[in-house]
Specification:
alpha/beta; 5 strands
Length: 249
């Protein structure tokens, strides 16, 4: 039986121990307005104190609602929230790509979706050493990917798959929500339909499977055979995101 309060306390201790061992002082955290970043914010607020968290919204042709929901999280936990609008940066980049040839929307779709989280992660990693220099404390970047997303490879290599510490990587979506309830993450954020804020589709629409079914496959529970095979196929096809072929002489 999953004990959310117990796991929350263990994660907080994990963060504190890691920071003490490695002489770290603060965290840079992308706040999307969704449950995962909301829960991570709550965990770090308890572990480090609100004064050591810098939240960042990184809109890129995004919904205004996401930015507003991010503010709900920062207001509740009381940490600083910065905004870096990447829309113009993305548009300028796209102008350069368009000079390379006449590509169709279908050809560009996957590249367009994935360049946005890469721009966002670039921004977070720019801020970490910047605020380390400004404050004299060592800042690192926190990831927000949960176990279900990671299992099927639902993240961008070089984008949201990159981080210095990830405290949700062994938690299913349902477990993340349970911990969010313990942390009192604003309900509008915690129970919001998850989406990437980039494609106009929910996560489950993009994946074609439910997070609850992914969790069942992970846990060895019964699930429709066709759905199970689809999830295992996504897991298998995403292994390139974890293993970089390296020649050894």
């Amino acid at each position: 039986m999953f004990n959310a309060k117990e796991q929350k306390d263990k994660i907080v201790k994990f963060i504190r121990d890691y920071y003490e061992k490695n002489n770290l002082g603060g965290v840079i955290l992308g706040i999307s307005g969704g449950k995962d970043s909301g829960v991570v914010a709550g965990l770090f607020a308890e572990a480090l104190g609100k004064e050591n968290i810098i939240g960042v919204t990184l809109p890129c042709h995004s919904k205004e609602e996401d930015k507003n929901d991010a503010k709900l999280v920062s207001d509740y936990y009381g940490f600083k929230l910065l905004n870096i609008d990447l829309t113009e940066v993305y548009d300028i980049f796209k102008e350069q790509i368009n000079l390379l040839g006449n590509f169709t929307e279908e050809q560009l779709l996957n590249s367009d979706i994935n360049v946005k989280p890469r721009l966002r992660m670039l921004s977070l990693y720019y801020l970490a050493p910047l605020f380390s220099a400004v404050t004299g404390k060592n800042y690192i970047v926190a990831g927000t990917g949960n176990k279900c997303e990671i299992f099927v490879g639902y993240f961008t290599k070089g984008g949201d798959g990159v981080s210095d510490i990830n405290v949700l990587a062994d938690l299913t979506v349902d477990e993340v929500i349970q911990i969010g309830e313990v942390l009192n993450v604003p309900k509008k954020v915690l129970y919001k339909t998850p989406d990437d804020g980039l494609s106009g589709k929910s996560d489950e629409e993009k994946l074609g499977v439910k997070y609850s079914d992914i969790a069942k496959v992970i846990n060895g529970e019964e699930v429709d055979e066709k759905i199970k095979l689809k999830i295992l196929n996504m897991h298998e096809k995403s292994q390139h995101k974890f293993n970089i072929p390296t020649y050894l002489k």
